[in-house]
Amino acid sequence: MAETPTRLGRLERPALTGVLVREVVNFSSFWKSSTFSSTVEPTIYLLAFGFGFGSLVSKVGGYSYVQFVGTGTVATAVLFSSAFPAMFGTFVKYQFQRTYDAILAAPVDTEELVTAEALWIATRAGVYGCVPMLVAIAFGLNPSWGMLTVPLIAWIAGFGWACFGIMIAGFASSFENFNYVVSAVLTPLFLVAGTFFPLSRLPRWAQILGEANPLHQCVELVRHAVFGFHGWTDLPRVGALVLFGLVLWRIAIYAMERKLVD
Predict the structure, then answer these.
(1) pTM of the model as a whole
(2) How remote is the C-alpha of 53 from its chain's centroid?
(3) Could you tell me the end-to-end alpha-carbon distance of the chain, in angstroms, rounded to an integer?
(4) Cα-flanking dihedrals φ and ψ of residue 63, to 5°?
(5) H helices within the chain, ranges in order?
(6) How far is CA 59 from CA 54, 64, 193, 251, in A?
(7) Residue 1 in this model has a pLDDT that exceeds 50
(8) How far is CA 86 from CA 22, 56, 71, 91, 200, in A?
(9) Contact yes or no for 150/130 (Cβ under 8 A)
(10) What mean pLDDT do residues 204-224 have?
(11) What contacts 245, CB < 8 A, 6 or more positions away?
């Protein structure tokens, strides 16, 4: 494995820029397939649940069901475009392609590599996360000025989930390990996020667990951005997403250092 060269400082801008530029150039060769996979599935959820259950349920939480699901699937798109690409992409790059070995041979350390990767994935998630909302607008969701903050909300949430994916890739020893994470962690969090039904309909213990779900914080912030912010009560949700991202960022760096600097 490549050894980390001596650094003069932490998170140096030239190192971050170099990794980001490489990611942008590389992304230009497969952006169509990535965009398709990251946006079509959440959109299918929106159409299936919005118009399927929407024909049975007219109002949820004071909103039409299409509006309720349309804003909720923004978080789903963020999850699909950040956690999954981070897990699989990171694992392939260090385990099979040895891309990270080549990058670390340059004046870049693991902290800068992980940070740049997470920033890039978060940026993609911020863009892809808006697609279900745009689809919902086409089906009757009224535009509002608060929608302009949705890309930022998606970016903050995407950074945390990108770090989560990188962390899992750093600790995983094979692709099979991802099955446990997807089935036992991501799927329950996805279902108990308030995307398709309000948490108030769940048992009290499930509501408490749901409130600790970072995906739920993203769902609520997006809904409040579209239909009207709830003032100071939204700040703890933003803080929870920021804290989630920072904690997972440091753990992701630790996990990748174990893999790349052994």
Answers:
(1) 0.90
(2) 26
(3) 6
(4) -115, 155
(5) 13-27, 31-52, 65-80, 83-95, 99-104, 110-128, 131-138, 150-171, 177-181, 187-191, 204-211, 214-227, 235-260
(6) 8, 5, 18, 41
(7) no
(8) 16, 37, 24, 8, 32
(9) yes
(10) 92
(11) 156, 157, 159, 160, 163
